[in-house]
Structures are given as C-alpha cells and as structure tokens.
Design a protein that fits this description.
- The protein has 9 helices and 6 strands, in the order ααβββαβααβαβααα.
- With about 220 residues, it is of the alpha+beta class.
- The chain has 2 domains: about 160 residues, no CATH class; about 40 residues, no CATH class.
- Strands 1, 2, 3, 4, 5 and 6 form a 6-stranded antiparallel beta sheet that branches.
- A hairpin with a 2-residue loop joins β1 and β2.
- α3 packs antiparallel against α6.
- The longest helix has 21 residues.
- The C terminus is likely disordered.
Length: about 220
C-alpha cells in the first residue's frame, strides 16, 4: 500500500460528471495537519517520517551485525502497523540547469562558457532522463494500545511524536538518519501535494510557509 492509498484509500470511480458538491475539499480525506501529523476526516492520525538509508554492504561484518541487532530491537517495540514506503522519482534537473545558466552568464572565458552551454544542452536533450532518485518513509498511526494523556487532539499528537522520537533513537543506532524538518506541517503538506499532483509538483513548487498561508485562508487552526 502506497502513501496515497494509506491516506486516501483505494481507487474510486465516479459516475457521470462531478457536481459542485464533489469538490476537492469534499474529496480530500485530510481534515488537518497538526504537529506534523495527518488528521483524516475519519479520525485517523498518521505520522510520516522521512529517513536517509545507509548502505549496509559497505560496512564491516561486525558493523552490519550491530545494525541488524539494533533494528531488530526497534521492531520489537515499534507500532504494530508500521509501514516502510519508497517513492521512486525521476531526477529533477531544472534547478541544476538554472544554476548552470547563471554560471554561463557570469563566465568570461569563452571556452568555459561553451563547455557550460554544452552541458546544458546535454541535460536538455535527456541525458539524465533515466536518472532516478528515491525517498524513504516510515509511516505509522495511532493504535488502540498507545496510551495517551487524555483523548484530545493535542494529547494524540504528542503521543505520536513521542513514537517518532523513539524511532529516531533506535534508528540512530542503526546509523539511519530520521529527518527532522524545521516546519513539520509544511513538510507533510508538501509531501501530500507531491503524492496527489505528481506532474504538477515537478513544475510548480509550494513556497516556504505555505501551510500557514493556506490555514489562514481556510480558517483551520490547531485549536
């Protein structure tokens, strides 16, 4: 099951055209994003962590065994419904090409400038079109056996973030870094945007602080 299926469910058919009641707001099952946690309209609370993997085969046998043991220890105390997701994406060369164009404009040496422009042409002709990149995610949700300090949304968010901190501690022993975005709500919003709009998200990037911008417009706040 992918991130999209986890949150949105399986594919749904539509009979006839879309009415005004079948707007994006009605179709989108996400009610809010609070403290880096996705809150769905059917009252599920989902935490998504991005991790940077390590190539275990480049390590010594002793180090590999230590990592396996540490990971096994984490699985013993991890949430029951723990999912590992990998997103395979085409490499985005637009930023690289823009940077090369800036270098070419500032380059005085005609030979160096020609080399830079030749590099831009190669990228534009699809030399890097077969290049792919991967993003790795650890996903879990609130479960019945997770004890919270009350049943408020804030208490649930705190409990899931405690689970995230536990994952960071154990995976750190595995030499796997769990990213800690500065703005966790922005991180989740941008991820969902990328998942829903695979093509558009490659051309149109969401600005920093977009979560605060959208919540202010739609009147959705933590309380």
């Amino acid at each position: 099951m992918s991130i999209k299926e986890l949150i949105f469910g399986g594919p749904k058919g539509f009979a006839g055209g879309l009415s005004s009641q079948e707007s994006i707001q009605k179709w989108l099952p996400v009610q809010n994003i609070v403290g880096g946690v996705v809150v769905t309209k059917d009252h599920r609370f989902i935490k998504i962590l991005e991790v940077l993997p390590v190539n275990i085969y480049l390590m010594s046998p002793n180090d590999r065994q230590n990592i396996i043991s540490s990971y096994a220890a984490y699985l013993k105390i991890a949430p029951d419904n723990l999912e590992l997701q990998v997103r395979t994406l085409a490499a985005d060369t637009a930023e690289y090409v823009d940077r090369m164009r800036q270098y070419a404009e500032a380059e005085d040496n005609p030979f160096c400038k020609e080399m830079i422009e030749d590099n831009i042409r190669e990228i534009g002709e699809g030399v890097a079109s077969d290049t792919i990149r991967h993003r790795f995610f650890l996903i879990f949700r609130l479960e019945g056996q997770m004890k919270t300090k009350g049943r408020s949304v804030r208490a649930i968010i705190q409990r899931l973030n405690e689970e995230a901190d536990t994952a960071r501690r154990y995976l750190d022993a595995c030499e796997v870094e769990v990213l800690e975005p500065r703005y966790s709500d922005d991180f989740v919003l941008k991820l969902l945007y990328d998942v829903i709009n695979k093509q558009t998200s490659r051309r149109v990037k969401l600005p920093e602080g977009v979560f605060d911008m959208t919540t202010a417009i739609h009147g959705i706040y933590e309380e």
